[in-house]
Design a protein that fits this description.
With 577 residues, this protein is α/β, with parallel strands linked by helices. Helices cover 53% and strands 10% of the residues.
Length: 577
RNA sequence: GCUCUCGUAGUUAAAUGGAUAUAACAACUCCGUCCUAAGGAGUGGUUGUAGGUUCGAUUCCUGCCGAGAGCACCA
């Protein structure tokens, strides 16, 4: 269901203009109907006269006048049509329109803003996919927040979304982690990477609990040590590679070790992702699919999609796509990232999904294009069903790119903790029930909003002070506004003012003119994959509400318009929520 | 070298090819018995640069400058 007349209104206006243009002899003109930046210039505006003027060889003002004459009284909810500027035609909507929109919004309740635009379309959005050998940093934060925002927006527009991730749980990186654990996690500090001994004496090894550190940091540290150890000595590097081979041969002891270290990883990820309110409907595990990928590669080789090089490596043939080629299987016969992605894409398509989205960093841009092209060549799906949703880089302000070696990584939990601490200080003096809960919620809003307020592709130099700001254009500002609305509504209830839209001031408030636009903003954000449209809109809405609040008394029993104001406030409340 | 992304007030950001380029922060001025002041009202721009397309360009195209990323057996 579409809970707004706004789109119908725009369509009616467009239709009326089309007819008027035909009568003027400029039926083919390609015009737009949009909201002017400033409501003093009407609720909708069209450039039709400017476009038609050229076709008709007349001045824009002249065409505009004829257009206005032809448009009079054609659309019932349009109260007034005016010419402005170089030849814009502005439409002023009737009072009832805004009242109806408020009523609509109140009827819709929590469904306000939703659409049926993508109804019955099964989509898959892959996002976040943290590597199990590392702790999640602010790069993952941006991925998760962007990904979950798109999941929610797409669902709000009717799509049936499966939110999912791929767990890269095999390969050399995990082997390095296993090595690091085996060698550097002994309680007595000795460095004897003996897997058979470990298998019999597991309690001689540390766990995150015995070391009293967060599990993801425990894992991160051991991976770094294992990695450095492999780099430092050829024997250790050999031993790490041997772990991969034993793992692929399903050596039970190695698998036991593998499960143990992954267990720590998942524990750590779960802590962070729960805080972020992440939702995965499905997680694919690389170890279950990399072999299937090799089968598709073999198939492709038979079909002539791929070619084998002298050393045995298998290469793509993407010349017709204008893309550089890439290896899909190594000369030693082992799988690469893209190998398993081919298999996964096939599996995803087999679920019946119409549209597959990958929320992944921009550095994967070429790899994604190559994957999409290869899948098309293999007949798995069409390229236009696949979408790479990239996003700008996260760096730490003043430090350039993050590097765990240089110690310039900013972890998600640290960011949240620092923000929470700052919030806690601010609310210490206040009469708030559950201070810890409030601090956590406010901190989360602050951090999320600092990312969502920017365009998706823009780089962000993450500034902890900036992100944790609680005033101005921020998440807490929106939360505060929501709380204020709730509080006013409570006062109104105590005073006996009941929301009602029967009586209202003759002039609509600026606030009303913003409220009805919410559904179309949601739609545009979903269609263009730009969550920040919604953030920007909510800031504007909150600013208008706060101005409204400052100028008007809402819960006043002596005011005949109070019920309407209360109804409007309630609408703002549910929009912000 | 080739390909992709980005360049807007001092700072951080906004602007489906439209009208006087919006906001926030910082600065300065004002609003305090009044629905939570985490608020409200008010004061400042060569949109990196040079062209092009257009009635109209921050937006589209081309060159240049600057930042970042990618370019086959890493993920």
């Amino acid at each position: 269901m579409v809970f707004s007349y706004a789109r119908a209104m725009q369509a009616q206006i467009r239709q009326a203009i089309s007819q008027a243009l035909v009568s003027l002899g400029a039926g083919e003109a390609d015009f737009s109907v949009e909201h002017p930046a400033d409501t003093s210039r009407g609720d909708y505006a069209t450039n039709a006269a400017l476009v038609a003027a050229k076709l008709l060889g007349k001045s824009p003002r002249e065409v505009a006048e004829q257009l206005v004459a032809a448009l009079r009284n054609t659309v019932s909810s349009v109260a007034q049509v005016e010419i402005a500027g170089p030849g814009f035609v502005n439409f002023y909507l009737a009072r009832e329109f805004f009242v109806q929109e408020i009523e609509r919004a109140r009827e819709a309740g929590p469904l306000w803003g939703t659409h049926d635009h993508f109804k019955h379309q099964p989509w898959i959005i892959e996002h976040t996919s943290p590597n199990p050998n590392k702790a999640m940093h602010i790069g993952h934060l941006r991925n998760n927040i962007t990904g979950m925002a798109l999941v929610r927006l797409s669902e709000a527009c009717g799509a049936e979304v499966v939110s999912e991730a791929i767990d890269n749980d095999r390969g050399i990186a995990i082997a390095k982690l296993m090595w690091g654990y085996l060698k550097f996690a002994r309680k007595d500090g000795s460095e004897d990477p003996n897997i058979a001994y470990w298998h019999e004496h597991k309690d001689e090894w540390h766990t995150p609990e015995t070391k009293d550190v967060r599990p993801d940091r425990f894992v991160d540290e051991l991976y770094v040590k294992g990695n450095a150890d492999g780099d430092a000595s050829p024997e250790c590097d050999q031993a790490i590679r041997a772990l991969v081979i034993s793992w692929e041969a399903h050596d039970e002891m190695v698998w036991d070790l593998w499960r143990t270290v992954l267990g720590f990883s998942y524990q750590g990820q779960a802590q962070t992702l729960t805080r972020l309110h992440n939702r995965w409907d499905r997680v694919w595990h690389e170890h279950e699919h990399y072999e299937a990928g090799k089968r598709y590669v073999a198939e492709g080789l038979e079909k002539g999609v791929f070619k084998k090089l002298e050393d045995g490596a298998i290469l793509t043939n993407l010349e017709s796509y204008g893309l550089s080629d890439t290896i899909v299987q190594k000369s030693d016969g082992t799988a690469l990232y893209i190998t398993q992605d081919i298999a996964l894409t096939k599996l995803k398509k087999d679920t019946g999904a119409q549209r597959l989205m990958w929320v992944i960093g921009p550095d994967q841009s070429l790899a994604m294009k190559q994957l999409f092209a290869v899948c098309e060549q293999l007949g798995i799906g069409r390229r236009d069903e696949f979408e790479h949703i990239a996003y700008g880089y996260m760096s730490v302000k003043g430090q350039g790119k993050m590097s765990s070696r240089l110690g310039t990584v900013l972890y998600i939990d640290d960011v949240l903790d620092m923000t929470k601490e700052k919030v806690s200080e601010l609310i210490r003096e206040r009469a708030i029930g559950d201070k810890d809960l409030v601090a956590e919620q406010v901190a989360l809003a602050a951090v999320k909003f600092s990312i969502l307020k920017s365009g998706r592709m823009r780089d962000i130099a993450f500034d902890i002070d900036e992100a944790t700001r609680l005033d101005g254009d921020s998440g807490p500002y929106l939360q505060y506004t929501h709380t204020r609305a709730v509080s006013v509504l409570k006062k109104a209830q105590e005073a006996g003012v009941v929301a009602d839209t029967a009586k209202q001031p003759t002039e609509p408030y600026e606030l009303e003119k913003k409220v009805y636009q919410f559904p179309e903003i949601v739609l545009r954000a979903a269609v263009e994959r730009e969550p920040h449209y919604v953030s920007t809109y909510l800031l504007e809405l909150a600013a208008l509400f706060n101005a409204f609040y400052a100028h008007e008394r809402i819960a006043d029993t002596s005011d005949a318009y109070a019920p309407y104001k209360v109804a409007l406030t309630d609408t703002v409340r549910q929009t912000l929520k």
